[in-house]
Amino acid sequence: MTLRSFSQFFIFLTSPSLHCENKSTFLIPYSEITSTFLRYILETCLQQTIFPIPEDVSEIVDETKWGKGFDVTDTDNHNPYAMNGYIVYRGLRYKHEEYQDEALWEYFTRDFAGWTADMFELADRDVVSKLRDHLRSHGVFVTKARGVKISKALHIILQEEKSRG
Asked: 107: how many CB neighbours lie within 10 A of its CB?
């Protein structure tokens, strides 16, 4: 079953179980369907994103990969456009969901699991700086010091077993 319209999405949501093509079936009570879950369904099943590409980064992101997952093992993703898009999109999600402190650290470490300092280094410096600054201003400890590359500081967070925030 492939869903391509909101009317199909509504019918899909009113079915006894929620099924996403090539994904698992979700058997949850309607009362427990949250807005976060609905966004997940919208993005994974309909392949649509909640956030449009911001104009200030439209020239440095890969539109075809915008809002989609990032497979670190796929070397086709190891380019500045795919990385910029993924970083910006995740940052928009973090802001929209108002993640802070431990929750923000958990989402960041999950979303960027497997990323290396070299991968962050490939991304646009302003994009990576904004990610670092957002993490710092929302309770995640990220080193910010002369001589410490942002890419290295972000990679250090990914290696931590718990938040230092």
From this structure: 16
| Cβ atoms of 142 and 154 closer than 8 Å | yes
132 within 8 A of 154, measured Cβ to Cβ? yes
Measured in residues, the chain has a length of 165
Of 108, 116, 123, give the one whose Cα is nearest residue 152: 116
Q: Tell me phi and psi for residue 69, to 5 degrees.
A: -65, 175
Angle formed by the axes of helices 80-97 and 101-111, nearest 10°: 150
Query: Which residues lie across from 19 on neighbouring strands?
Result: 25
Q: Are 27 and 17 in contact (CB under 8 A)?
A: yes
Mean pLDDT, residues 1-15 taken together: 44
State mean pLDDT over 87-112: 95
